[in-house]
Specification:
Blueprint lengths: L10 H17 L1 H5 L3 E6 L2 E7 L13 H16 L6 E10 L8 E12 L2 E10 L5 E11 L15
Antiparallel strand pairs: 1-2, 2-4, 3-6, 4-5, 5-6
Length: about 160
């Protein structure tokens, strides 16, 4: 699968992305509590899924937009942190296209569009899993903080 024009990642880059996702997910209480599952990850890419539960329904009997945003934001986070550099959101926008309803399985797919210096741009599409209906489009802007996610290999750090 080609992502962001970068071609297929090498085995080392793929393993790094998977290790970063596993380390982040272990500490991500919000995503775990909402039932968000990282289905696939690679350099600059993530597919995450979530099922709309009773506690996510608003007064209009549809999924509260904040939960759709959170799913997209989680996919964004795993995609932009796939390079073993702690990276946070600098900003994000979302366009809600259609409602999600109780029981819908939603899938968010995050794709890196650009990384430059310490910044990045990612597009995340949220769809209903059963019929691929578009639910929302999210654009995230990232900022790298310049420290690794994974522990250094081979012992003590140089000081």
């Amino acid at each position: 699968m080609s992502r962001s024009g970068l071609g297929t990642p090498g085995l080392a880059e793929q393993r790094r992305a998977e290790a970063c996702a596993a380390a982040m997910y272990a500490e991500d209480r919000a995503s775990r509590r909402l039932g968000i599952i990282v289905e696939q990850v690679g350099p600059g890419f993530c597919r995450a899924g979530m099922t709309v539960t009773e506690s996510m329904i608003n007064g209009h009997a549809i999924c509260h937009g904040g939960f759709v945003f959170t799913l997209a934001d989680s996919a964004f986070a795993f995609a932009c942190n796939s390079y073993d550099q702690v990276t946070v959101a600098a900003g994000a926008d979302i366009v809600f296209v259609a409602p999600a309803r109780l029981g819908d399985r939603l899938v968010a797919e995050a794709l890196e569009r650009a990384r430059y210096g310490r910044s990045g741009v990612y597009d995340i599409t949220v769809r209903r899993a059963d019929d691929a209906a578009l639910i929302a489009e999210f654009r995230g802007r990232s900022r790298c903080l310049g420290r690794p996610i994974l522990p250094a290999e081979g012992g003590a750090e140089d000081g």
